[in-house]
């Protein structure tokens, strides 16, 4: 599906409760009351759609990319928080028993203990919920604990807010809007079930085993896995990523997203280039061959499979090399005749991963150029120095930035933002720049 169609669909779903309320024929109330209802309904619709956005549906992540999807997830959550916080304070009508003559419920607010309690629970939970998500990296507990709190909290908020809207919302009494809420609440809980029950069940039938864990640079490993059953493994495109779980039940929350670094041409052996940064990645050196692994994927849109540009510039920072390595390996395996230029930035020489293989590619493939860029080069360093600047890119591409070539970027967020700006200023159109961030903030 076209990404613009997905965005249009999102906007249409978000605005649907407002449209349905207008259409319901209820008489007008004070401006504050209408604003309060609108804010509450829009907050609820955003919250429920968040489940679908973060449900790892390939239809979404393959079209607009997982980092963009997650960025949208974060921005929408903040919007929902503001609207939900305002919702009760905008009302002007009093909470009081309904007046017998007020059949359109314009003069008082719905007055029932379950309605008030569920609304208050959702409202109170939402504040620490969003704060915990914003402060995630600074929290003193494991990522998996955070994930359990995030999933459980989201489910509790959706259930309480959904009930609140369904039993007491003035407009939700309309059968069409009521049905809309029921469908959306069901979609939210189905999305949760897909991630935590359906996918793990499917993974039980497609187990992998670790066959090698190889150090490839300072604090960086390449992990190779093969499917237990005969035949090929996952069907993916070079540049995509998967959620990898090594040594735990597929129902455990201990899985992390990693780009696949091997070429799809070699589908039986799937590799990941992984840098030690935290709880799981620091244990990689202790993982033994034979350990069971599970994959959820492929996900992501960082692929050049259908792209026809006459040349490809790959720009990697640190372990951002992983998906670009898969693209380079696939280019070699498929004999892609186009010129490929890899600009690979690191701080020090010890951090350069897969150096031998990259240099061999540059030697063996006439159309493959590798430029190592170090910000802290050792004495006598022959490669480029500093950051990946306009001059470095132009030098590697024959003296000028190539607006007609495809540019694929992966690395630290600051580097991607800087390089993307440089490319756009050099005349490269947005459609010729693909990027993926490993962190979202
Ligand atoms: C699409 C994508 C592709 C990635 N590809 C690679 C890759 O090819 N190689 C590589 O080394 N790293 C990659 N990463 C980053 C990698 O997922 C994290 O470094 C890893 O999950 C950290 O796990 P940990 O338990 O060691 O760290 P933790 O101690 O749990 O946390 C360290 C940091 O990693 C982040 N993190 C932890 N778990 C996750 C998770 N499940 N999802 C997102 N962020 C998490 C935390 O926010 C924290 O900032 C990728 C991330 C994404 C989103």
TrEMBL record:
It is found in: Membrane. It is a multi-pass membrane protein. Keywords: 2Fe-2S, FAD, Flavoprotein, Iron, Iron-sulfur, Membrane, Metal-binding, Oxidoreductase, Transmembrane, Transmembrane helix. The chain crosses the membrane at residues 35-54, 75-95, 115-135, 147-166, 178-198. The keyword ATP-binding does not apply. GO terms for molecular function: 2 iron, 2 sulfur cluster binding; flavin adenine dinucleotide binding; metal ion binding; oxidoreductase activity. InterPro entries: FAD-bd_FR_type (IPR017927), Fe3_Rdtase_TM_dom (IPR013130), FNR_nucleotide-bd (IPR039261), MRET (IPR050415), OxRdtase_FAD/NAD-bd (IPR001433), Riboflavin_synthase-like_b-brl (IPR017938). One of its GO terms (cellular component) is membrane. Its main location: membrane. Residues 203-305 form the FAD-binding FR-type domain. Its cofactor is FAD. This is Putative ferric reductase. It comes from Breoghania corrubedonensis.
């Amino acid at each position: 599906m076209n990404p613009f169609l997905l965005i249009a669909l999102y906007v249409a779903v978000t605005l649907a409760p407002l449209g349905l309320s207008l259409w319901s024929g209820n008489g007008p109330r004070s401006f504050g009351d209408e604003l309060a209802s609108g804010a509450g309904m829009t907050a609820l619709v955003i919250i429920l759609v968040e489940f679908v956005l973060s449900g790892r549906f390939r239809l979404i992540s393959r079209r607009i990319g997982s980092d963009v999807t997650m960025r949208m997830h974060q921005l929408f959550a903040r919007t929902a928080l503001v609207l939900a916080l305002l919702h009760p304070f905008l009302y002007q009508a009093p909470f009081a028993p309904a007046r017998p003559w007020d059949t359109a419920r314009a003069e008082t607010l719905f007055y029932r203990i379950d309605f008030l309690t569920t609304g208050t629970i959702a409202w109170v939970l939402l504040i620490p919920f969003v704060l915990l998500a914003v402060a995630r990296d600074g929290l003193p507990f494991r990522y998996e604990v955070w994930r359990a709190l995030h999933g459980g909290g989201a489910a509790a908020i959706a259930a309480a807010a959904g009930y609140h809207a369904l039993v007491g919302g003035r407009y939700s009494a309309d059968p069409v809007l009521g049905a809309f809420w029921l469908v959306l609440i069901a979609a939210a809980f189905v999305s949760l079930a897909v991630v935590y029950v359906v996918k793990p069940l499917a993974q039980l039938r497609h187990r992998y085993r670790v066959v090698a864990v190889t150090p490839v640079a300072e604090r960086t490993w390449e992990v190779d896995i093969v499917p237990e059953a005969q035949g090929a493994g996952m069907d993916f495109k070079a540049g995509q990523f998967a959620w990898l779980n090594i040594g735990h039940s597929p129902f455990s929350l201990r899985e992390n997203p990693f780009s696949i670094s091997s070429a799809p041409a070699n589908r039986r052996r799937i590799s990941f280039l992984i840098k030690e940064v935290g709880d799981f990645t620091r244990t990689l050196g202790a993982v033994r061959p034979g350990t069971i692994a599970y994959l959820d994927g492929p996900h992501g849109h960082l692929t050049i499979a259908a792209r026809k540009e006459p040349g490809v510039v790959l720009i990697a920072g640190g372990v951002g090399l992983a998906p670009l390595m898969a693209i380079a390996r696939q280019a070699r395996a498929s004999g892609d005749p186009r010129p490929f230029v890899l600009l690979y930035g690191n701080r020090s020489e010890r951090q350069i991963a897969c150096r031998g293989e990259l240099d061999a590619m540059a030697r063996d493939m006439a159309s493959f150029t590798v430029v190592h860029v170090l910000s802290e080069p050792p004495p006598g360093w022959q490669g480029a120095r500093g950051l990946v600047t306009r001059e470095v890119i132009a030098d590697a591409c024959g003296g000028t930035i190539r607006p007609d070539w495809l540019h694929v970027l992966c690395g630290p967020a600051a580097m991607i933002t800087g390089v993307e700006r440089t490319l756009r200023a050099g005349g490269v159109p947005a459609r010729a720049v693909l990027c993926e961030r490993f962190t979202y903030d």
